[in-house]
Amino acid sequence: MSIHRSDKTDKYEHHDYYGVDALLSEDHLLARQAVHDWVKQEVSPIIESHAEQGKCPHHLFKGLADIGAFGPSIPAEYGGGGMDEIAYGVIMQELERGDSGIRSMASVQGSLVMYPIYKYGSEEQRKKYLPKLGSGEFIGCFGLTEPDHGSNPSGMTTNVVDDGDSYILNGAKMWITNSPVADIAVVWAKREDGRIIGLIVEKGMKGFSAPEIHGKWSLRASITGELVFEDVRVPKANVLPNVEGLKGPLGCLSKARYGIAWGAIGAALDCYDSALRYSQERVQFGKPIGQFQLTQKKLAEMITEITKAQLLAWRLGSLANEGKATSAQISMAKRNNVHMALEIAREARQIHGGMGITNEYPIMRHMMNLETVLTYEGTHDIHLLITGHDVTGLNAFK
Ligand code: TGC
Ligand code: FAD
């Protein structure tokens, strides 16, 4: 990845109230600025119209690869960015400042497709798929959720039957980001003994289809579909050999949820930035609306919550760099920061008055996107119950 600071771009709107930037390295700041600049140049000019039309900007895949957005913390020899977890975080933040759907493209490709192949795959699988995924030549997707098993993936019914050198795969996955345009799918299925395994299913395999899901009011610039398997013969060479059980997919989710904890801050910053500017420019009763105490309360609470989220993400990133971040800590950060961003979008919408519902401002797009982000990768309540389990030792799911 080549990182450079551009002189041509806008001042970086980071609203760093507690000086968290001082905790970041020069490499983190450069990576963040490079992605920020790319988003301003490539995403901001097109995102409202794509979201409005429900169109995924596929052409951005290559650019995302070029800025190192796919697997920033996966080693470079395996197609990733070879950076640390905080670099991964700040990159997700800047992508989601642009749009949650753009961050989703990178989350799925890096954390849910490249990561399992890197972590659980054979050396042959790593060599075959990772360079193409890292360069954006291949698009990947991740199939865990099913029509009847969302929060409870252990109940999945997608299954494989042993047939010599192959498995015969049957079942269906639902709500799969990028599935209609994906070249490969990392799919989680049950073996005859009930154990969950991961398989790499390739586009074009007989009996495999990936129809698009239409009618979404959220994440409209991201394409979502199903995965349908009707007697698909998958060679055993495509099974991820180094993991069995639900900890396989859940391990990938930890990686992606971590990225979302940072990403949500980007969406919140974009809403806050827009609301702050509007409050200084919009005049009612002869003064800027930012001079009214009720507007100041909103803005003061917004920056307080953003600051708390920044500190949470930074500390989580430091723990992750030391290999000490627990999945429960990641759940807390994902839950808190996404909810924070959604609340900020709602407050920002109020500050913009009627203009807040239009596409002149990014607020409604972020707000609608964040409804998905609150639900995918584990719902708001599932993450609460993960924290509840962690602090009480009592498991609500059993
Ligand atoms: P449970 O018995 O708790 O755990 C089974 C095994 O997994 C281990 N484990 C984890 N390992 C790594 N990371 C985690 N986060 C882990 N959580 C659990 C656990 O230690 C155990 O290991 P072992 O060795 O004992 O077998 O499992 P459970 O069936 O009781 O489920 C617990 C629950 C409800 C928390 C879990 O199922 C869950 O997280 N549900 C939410 C499902 C979810 O998040 N789905 C997301 C689908 S993918 C997606 O949304 C992508 S969006 C893409 C985009 O960005 O566009
Ligand atoms: P359900 O599990 O049916 O939950 C419905 C409600 O019940 C929620 O409020 C939930 O919190 C609550 N609930 C469930 N169980 C409990 C409980 N034990 N206690 C209290 N409340 C409970 N999945 C993938 O595998 N890959 C993807 O790429 C992917 N991308 C997505 C993209 C989009 C746009 C969307 C919307 C979803 C995507 N998902 C993906 C699926 C997502 O992870 C699921 O929607 C999510 O895990 C919730 O599952 P569900 O929708 O079936 O809701």
Short description, anyone?
With 398 residues, the chain is an alpha+beta fold.
Protein architecture, described:
By secondary structure, the protein is an alpha+beta fold. It has 3 domains: 5-134, Orthogonal Bundle (Butyryl-Coa Dehydrogenase, subunit A, domain 1); 140-238, Butyryl-CoA Dehydrogenase, subunit A, domain 2, CATH 2.40.110.10; 247-392, Butyryl-CoA Dehydrogenase, subunit A, domain 3 (Up-down Bundle). 49% of the residues lie in helices and 13% in strands. It is built from 10 helices and 9 strands. The protein has helices at residues 26-53, 60-66, 85-98, 100-120, 123-134, 247-281, 293-321, 327-351, 363-375, 380-392, and strands at 140-143, 159-163, 166-177, 184-190, 196-202, 208-209, 224-235, 283-284, 287-288. Strands 2-3-7-6 form a 4-stranded antiparallel β-sheet, covered by helices on one side. Strand 4 (184-190) and strand 5 form a beta hairpin. Helix 3 crosses helix 6 (247-281) and helix 4 (100-120) packs antiparallel against helix 6. The longest helix is centred in the middle third of the chain and has 35 residues, at 247-281. The protein starts with 25 loop residues before the first helix and ends in a 6-residue tail after the last helix. The model is unreliable at 1-10 (pLDDT under 50). It binds 3-thiaglutaryl-CoA and flavin-adenine dinucleotide. Flavin-adenine dinucleotide binds at residues 108, 141-145, 150-151, 175-177, 219, 224, 372, 375-377, 379, 381-382, 385, 397. Residues 108, 141-145, 150-151, 175-177, 219, 224, 372, 375-377, 379, 381-382, 385, 397 line the site of flavin-adenine dinucleotide (FAD).
